[in-house]
Design a protein that fits this description.
single chain, alpha/beta, Rossmann fold
Length: 283
């Protein structure tokens, strides 16, 4: 049975969503794949999710089956103030999982906002407006989690995401240069925390594309855990063909093949994330 046939209703959803950006300055680490499939897994267990696609490539939007021709309002329109976040939100094929799609127009956002004094606060402002609207209007969807999928670089889009977010979720590929890239990212997060968003923290590190047949994957796993004890999730996302195939069909892996090892890992990761968030709230 598909996990989406009867998603449980979460009557105790928190009024204020937890806002997380998924970031890594290195491309090809499974960042967008994690955003899509973790969001899907959370929706499957009754935690409504909004994913804001802030990458000009728009891979998260494509991977959720939103054709480019159907992206009437995008995150670009929201950043420019031509649309509210509520107006740009669209449904996906996953019950409880909504999306603000992206377009190539995002490539020009730095030029468009170059004279705007709040250019790196545009997304934070839009989220604040959305929260106020959702509290006043029951017809506006409320979410337990809001994910922001960042581009694989440090630019104004990534800064907007980190200023708007409460925490950063870091997907990390199990490869040779993983620790070097991670150190650079953590340094960036500390700089943003020190000057732009004091509340920003690191939600966790997710190891992706783990290959049990490769000794290097196991070595990277051990190294990352020894350097960043407590930050790394127990759940490891395996390298999986079905997960790689799913975006070409415009589906999350959990809809494409919910029994494959990758889908099962993302379901496990969702449970671990919820437990970690509940522990944080209780502390």
């Amino acid at each position: 049975m598909s996990p989406f046939e009867s998603p449980p209703h979460n009557a105790a959803a928190p009024p204020a969503p937890r806002v997380m950006c998924l970031a890594n300055q290195k491309g090809g680490v499974g960042k967008t794949t994690t955003a899509i499939n973790l969001g899907t897994a959370l929706a499957a267990i009754g935690e409504p999710v909004l994913l804001i696609d802030l990458d000009p490539q728009g891979n998260a939007s494509t991977g959720l089956g939103i054709d480019r021709a159907d992206r009437k309002l995008t995150s670009f329109d929201v950043l420019l103030g031509d649309a509210t976040l509520a107006e740009a939100v669209c449904e996906t094929a996953v019950p409880g999982f909504h999306l603000v799609p992206a377009s190539m127009d995002l490539l020009g956002v730095e030029v468009e906002l170059s004279d705007n004094e709040r250019r790196i606060h545009r997304l934070a402002d839009a989220l604040a407006d959305y929260q106020a609207t959702s509290m006043a209007d029951s017809a506006v969807s409320r979410f337990s989690y809001i994910f922001i999928d960042c581009p694989p670089s440090l630019n104004m889009l990534t800064l907007n995401a980190m200023v708007a977010a409460q925490s950063v979720l870091v997907p990390l590929q199990c490869e040779f240069f993983a620790l070097e890239g991670l150190s650079q990212l953590l340094s960036t997060i500390e700089q943003v925390k020190g000057s732009l968003n004091p509340a920003l923290d690191i939600q966790g590190i997710v190891l992706t594309m783990f290959d049990a047949r490769n000794n290097l994957s196991s070595q990277v796993d051990a190294d990352v855990r020894s350097h960043f004890d407590g930050l790394v999730y127990d759940t490891v996302i395996p390298r999986n063909v079905r997960v790689s195939e799913a975006p070409s069909f415009g589906k999350p892996a959990l809809l494409y093949d919910h029994k494959c090892s990758g889908s099962l890992a993302y379901m496990q990761l969702a449970g671990e994330l919820v437990r970690r968030e509940r522990a944080r709230q209780a502390a």
